[in-house]
Amino acid sequence: MRARHLATAAALALTTALLAATPAPAEPSATTPPSGRRPAPARPAGHTEVPVEGGSARFATPPALLAALKARGVALADVDARGTVTPHHDSGGISLGIKGGAVTNSGGKVGGELRFADSGIALVNRTTKKVVKVTGFTVDLGRGTLRAQLNHGPGMTVGTFTRPAIASAIDTHAAALRMDTGITVAASAAAKLNAALGTTGFTGGPLLHARIDAALDRSVDLGTALNLGHRPASTDAGRRSAGVVGGGVPLGW
């Protein structure tokens, strides 16, 4: 009987010793991610999307295309956000506000997207009385395409352009994206425009000339976010004194 009591006491003593030697569970750290979740990887420099906070663009019709359309009785007009068509008598250009988007560095060239105001341009065939409203403009900077809707249909590519280098298109001092580029009509868009208007005015070649000035988020370090590299202050100052900003576009345009 005494031997049984001694064995029981020894077992209890061993259990107590083992429990005392076992380390207590670590308190969860504020930096330790919850169980089953991995920490979000840091985004490498140059791959950050910089928000677009406004700006405007001017789209002008090349003189040769404007003359070809006029010869076929096609006139240009403005379309407001409600779809109201208002004729105008200038060189065929329209100005659109930029309502959003983002800019990225895509392989050393401009990437991202620009979204424009809901207004647009109308093409009016005075002979056939047909009207085509072109609205819902967006610029896919990564693909180098201008997209829009014809008569509120599905979005389609209406033209293409050469993507500029990111370093030359960004004005870090003004926190702006500046582009001055020609847009070539897409073959499918030319066919649809001709069919909708009952004309043959669109035969390929230049469609529009775009001058874009997009305001970027000023709270972002553009040099780091877009991987622009180091620009000597003397170089920037010299270019500003010569009336040229980051994109090589004269000031005041």
Structure notes:
With 253 residues, this protein is of the alpha+beta class. It has 6 helices and 12 strands. Strands 1-4-5-7-8-9-11-12 form an 8-stranded antiparallel barrel. Strand 8 and strand 9 form a beta hairpin.
pLDDT < 50 runs, ≥5 residues: 1-21, 25-33, 38-45, 231-253
Radius of gyration: 31 Å
Main beta-sheet strand count, sense and barrel state:
8 strands, antiparallel, barrel
Principal-axes geometry comes out as: elongated
Strand coverage percent: 35-45%
Order of helices and strands: HEHEEEEEEEEHEEHEHH
Compute the number of strand runs: 12
**Share of helical residues:** 10-25%
Spatial gap, N to C terminus? 106 Å
Strand line-up in the sheet with most strands: 1-4-5-7-8-9-11-12
Give the structural class.
Answer: alpha+beta
| Mean pLDDT across every amino acid position | 80
Q: Please count the helical segments.
A: 6
Write a compact overview of the structure shown.
This protein is of the alpha+beta class and 253 residues long.
What structural keywords apply?
253 residues; alpha+beta; 6 helices; 36% strand; elongated; disordered N terminus
SSE arrangement:
Blueprint (H helix, E strand, L loop, with lengths): L1 H20 L28 E11 L2 H9 L2 E6 L5 E3 L6 E13 L2 E8 L3 E6 L5 E10 L4 E6 L5 E5 L5 H4 E2 L4 E10 L1 H11 L8 E11 L5 H4 L7 H9 L12
Antiparallel strand pairs: 1-4, 1-12, 2-3, 2-6, 4-5, 5-7, 6-7, 7-8, 8-9, 9-11, 10-11, 11-12
